[in-house]
Amino acid sequence: MTGGALAGVRVVDVSRVLAGPYCAQLLGDHGADVVKVEPVTGDLTRSWGPSRPDGVSAYYAGLNRNKRHLAADLGTSEGRELMLELLADADVLVENFKPGAMTRWGLAPDMLAERLPRLVHCRISAFDPDGPMAGLPGYDAVIQAYTGIMDLNGEPGGPPLRIPMPVVDLTTGLLALSGVLLALHEREESGKGQRVDISLVDGAMSLLHPAAANYFMTGAPPHRLGSAHPNIAPCETFPSPAGEVYVAAGSDRQFAELVSFLGAPELADDPQFRRNADRLAHRHELNAVLARLIAALDPDVDLARTLIAEGVPATLVRSLPQVLDAEDVAARGMVTELDGLRMLGVPVRLSRTPGSIRTPPRPLGADQVAGG
Predict the structure, then answer these.
(1) pLDDT above 60: residue 1
(2) Closest of 257, 265, 234 to residue 247, by C-alpha
(3) For residues 94 and 20, is the Cβ–Cβ distance under 8 A?
(4) CA quadruple 87, 93, 97, 102: dihedral positive or negative?
(5) Whether the bond into 241 is cis, omega within 30 of 0
(6) 107, 83 in Cβ contact below 8 A?
(7) Which residues partner with 238 through β-bridges?
(8) Are 176 and 19 in contact (CB under 8 A)?
(9) Closest alpha carbon to 169 in 332, 65, 51, 45
(10) Do residues 19 and 199 lie in contact, with contact meaning Cβ atoms separated by under 8 Å?
(11) What is the pLDDT of residue 372?
(12) Where does the record place the region Disordered (predicted)?
């Protein structure tokens, strides 16, 4: 196996919490040499949730593998000199400090760009760093509320709900990764680095499909639909003898295959249900019929495998332990173990230069401490 697609790329990660560390971890998964520089007090996530005796929490562990671990007080001369030393031969800097912090430490972005013209500087912020909300802190759940995601999530008539995974931070990390890779690719032609700017608000806004597209076209504000889909029917959860089952018959063909499987093929020709637009207009009538048919299914039938084999996207709603112990997940290596620590695997698979998990997350300052 080679060193990965990004072997030879050097990354300095001085970001904290989630989006930045996730971006840097993904770079490390594919072979980049990533140095994580934490405050001497440690990344805030080291104290979030269950932890090992060495100070590695479960939350921290999920975002900081495949990195070297340094600690530095960037407000000291020792910390500044360490940063300049690391950046001298770095390709990428990932940071998420408030505007002005880098300048106070003698590491102003313009100075770095002049001194290190090939550096790709990835700056992650909560809001537009040059806008009216510049410098204000933001966390995933707050941004979910601020950008309307939380208002869209929940049961009809119920209160808005936070999506339990930090989707804003994770999406922002993925967008930051794509920006870094774009800038590295362009540097091959120009020989010059550039700044990559991404905010949590931008990341959240990119998730507003199809709600935003529907609103732009109709002017009608969306309403909470629970597990249903605003543009497709049927596309929601129904109770079955084996547990809750999610059905997503997104096309007329899939709907015909679904009702045929359920023993009611005539529903595909019913004028109320023949086309997706018809099914949306008669969603409540359709759901009542499907609920009755699905409730009568044989509880011993493997609904996920059977329905998907019939061409209908559907599955029993599985619990997290069921997913993490599933045969297909294990076969893909999406749950793996290193030094006794279970973790999620590398989701992007390359045929010649695959990513890998080489080093586990480590204690604070395991490789070096400066200025603390």
Answers:
(1) no
(2) 234
(3) yes
(4) positive
(5) no
(6) yes
(7) 245
(8) yes
(9) 45
(10) no
(11) 62
(12) 352-372
- pTM of the entire predicted model: 0.94
Q: Which two tokens stand for residue 37?
A: 């520089």
The CATH code for residues 10-207+334-370 is 3.40.50.10540
- Which residues of the chain are in CATH 3.30.1540.10 domains? 235-322
Comparing 106-110, 190-194, 309-313, the range with the smallest average pLDDT is: 309-313
Q: Is 245 helix (H, G, I), strand (E, B) or coil?
A: strand
Locate the DSSP E strands across the chain.
Answer: 10-13, 33-38, 68-72, 92-95, 120-125, 195-199, 235-240, 243-248, 314-316, 335-338, 341-344, 368-370
- Top CATH class of 235-322 equals alpha beta
Mind telling me the catalytic residues? 169
The CA–CA distances, whole Å, from 22 to 58, 134, 185, 204 equal 14, 23, 20, 16
**pLDDT band, very low/low/confident/very high, at 130 (cuts 50, 70, 90):** confident
d(CA 263, CA 290): 11
Per mean pLDDT, which range of 7-16, 114-123, 218-227, 312-321 is the poorest? Answer: 312-321
Q: How far apart are CA 283 and CA 279, in angstroms?
A: 5
Cβ-count burial of 319 within 10 angstroms (0-12 exposed, 13-18 middle, 19+ buried)?
Answer: exposed
Domain(s) of CATH 3.40.50.10540: residues in the chain: 10-207+334-370
Q: What is the 3-state secondary structure (H, E, C) of 126-140?
A: CCCCCCCCCCCCCCH
Beta bridge partners of 37: 70
Label residue 306 by pLDDT band (50, 70, 90): confident
